[in-house]
Backbone:
């Protein structure tokens, strides 16, 4: 039986289960990369400018705290930053 692709009317070899699985995995990988890029370049920068996160971002920049470290045990300003973060979360800025 000769199969043809409807769009081109050219013979199309049937896709194996492995090929379909590879296409699904590559599509999922590309979707994950796009979501990560969305958070990095759109959601993150907009979140930094929000009234809720701006005070924390300014405090981190003013005190030159490396916010990318996982353990803050060696950073002197961490306790002050922690208090500021807790207060910001408990009492967010309100517009009047």
Residues:
């Amino acid at each position: 039986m000769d199969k043809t692709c409807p769009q081109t009317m050219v013979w199309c070899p049937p896709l194996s289960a492995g090929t379909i699985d590879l296409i699904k995995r590559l599509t999922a990988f590309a979707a994950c990369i796009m979501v990560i890029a969305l958070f990095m370049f759109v959601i993150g920068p907009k979140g930094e400018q929000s009234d809720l996160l701006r005070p924390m971002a300014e405090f981190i920049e003013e005190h030159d705290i490396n916010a990318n470290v996982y353990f803050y045990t060696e950073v002197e300003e961490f306790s002050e930053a922690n208090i500021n973060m807790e207060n910001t979360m408990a009492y967010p800025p309100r517009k009047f």
Q: What stands out?
A: Residues 14-41 form one domain.
